[in-house]
Each structure stands twice: as structure tokens, then as C-alpha cells.
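Work Package 3 (structural annotation) set out to generate three-dimensional models for the target panel prioritized at the project kickoff. During this period the team completed the workflow that converts sequence records into C-alpha cells, so that structures can be stored uniformly alongside our sequence database. As a representative example, we reproduce one entry of 299 residues exactly as it appears in the project archive.
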Amino acid sequence: MFDPITLKLNADPLILSALKEDITSEDVSTNSVMPFARQGKADLICKQDGVICGLQIFERVFQLLSEHIPASSDIHTAAEFSVSDGDSVQYGQLIGTISGDIRILLSGERTALNYLQRMSGIATYTRSVADLLKDTDIKLLDTRKTSPNNRIFEKYAVRIGGGTNHRYNLSDGVLLKDNHILAAGGVGRAIRMAKEYAPFVRKIEIETESLDMVKEAVEAGADIIMLDNMEPAQIKEAAAYIAGRSEIEVSGNVTRELIASLSDLGVDYISSGALTHSAPILDLSLKNLHAVSGQVTAP
């Protein structure tokens, strides 16, 4: 769950930006059929089996929108859920309701569902991969391959699905990839330069694509060595050479078969960009909107 400070300082501006994208001047459809404030309620229904994630953000969309649409003090915006983030949900399940000014429910529906479907889809896909590692000590990591301005939501969804967050952004840690190595003039030189520049509290990770690069990284004192797009036989050879002198992350071409081959090689992490860039949404729907009070308030 997002703590209040993170929600207000980081999530709220992004949610408001999404609402502004959807309502540039007015909601013509809603204003046509509902010109006045009226208390209403709608059902949140699951249309696909999966893992639910983003309920707080779903509700927050309507709460923020209610601050910008005047209504009677007797009309309140609130959600009630029968599940929590991380719970498994099934097709046809009623997982909650949202109450508030009908105008708010209509105008916020798509933005709220977009967040909830996307976050639930990531949590669902992450859970399916994390389950493959449940009998190992290997941690499943995400990457920075996220949708622009949605990283805070997508990385949260990875955690809910059973994964672990890699660095959040470029200020969060040192990860020397192929182009950094080329810019520095080699693996060893890149690591030495990072050790001289980066704060001592930062671990230094480097991407390698061959055993020669692995050997150079070990000699230069890398904290974490990423084995990128290596075949299982190469990973086994590299892990045997590293022999605990650095932590090991495997990345690229993360298949079920690859995961099965890594359980006893001493690998510490597996990272997968697919957790965020390729997870399909979880199909959810807001249905059965109806008035729950006879009160109508003129604007």
C-alpha cells in the first residue's frame, strides 16, 4: 500500500495528469445525461482470473476528481472492497463497489480502470514467474522498462506479485551496461571509474556478455555481475568462475526452461523486463451504476 506521503507527493500528480489527459475541457457525455450532482454506486467486477493490484489507486482517482467537481456535502466518494492487493480473483467475482457523485463515477471510470487493469496485469504475470522460483533463494527483479510516468505504479505491482524491485531510477544505483563500458574504454576501467566517482554506499553492478568480461569484472571488484543473454552452459561456467566473489544476476531470455536450470548454480537474481513491458492487463469492469438517493443538487 502507498503510504500517505508517497501518495500525495508522487502518485497524486500523476493521477491528476492522467485525468487531465482524459478531460481537457469537459466530459461532454456525462454532462449531457447528468447535469446535476446525485449520489450513485457501481460494482467493480472481475472478468478474468488473476491477482488484483491497485485498489488504492482506483479509489484515489475518484477522490481526486471529487475535489474538482462541486457537489453537495451529503455526497461522499468512497470504495468498499472485498479483496486486498495481492489476492487472487476469479472471473465473475464482485470485488468491490465505488460510491459518489454519479458525474464523478462516470468521468473517472476509464482512468481508474486503466490503472487497476494495468497494475493487476503486472501483478498477475509477476506471480506466475515468481511461483517458478518459490523453492529457490533466487530473487525475481524488475527493470526500468516501464511506461513513462507509470513507474511508481508498475514497480509497486511487481512487489505485489511477488517480485523485487531493482533500482528505481538512474539516481538509485550504478549499473554499467554495454554502452557505459564502451564509453569508459573497457570493463575494468568502467568499474574503477565508478568506484572513484559513485558514493561508497552504492553497489556497482556491471553487465557482461562473455566469460572474458566476467573475469575482468571479478578482477576489478564488481559487487554484482549481470550475465546478459547467456546460454545455460555459459551461465554455469561463469557462476563457477565467480564462486561467490560477486553476486550474480541473470538477465535476458528468461524462459521457464532457463529458470529451471538455474536453481543450483548459485545465482542470486533473475531480472526480467517483461514483468512490466509485456504483461497483459487483467480484464475488469465497472457495472450496474445506479442512483442510491433521491437527492439531486443543482450546481
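The two ends are 35 Å apart (CA to CA).
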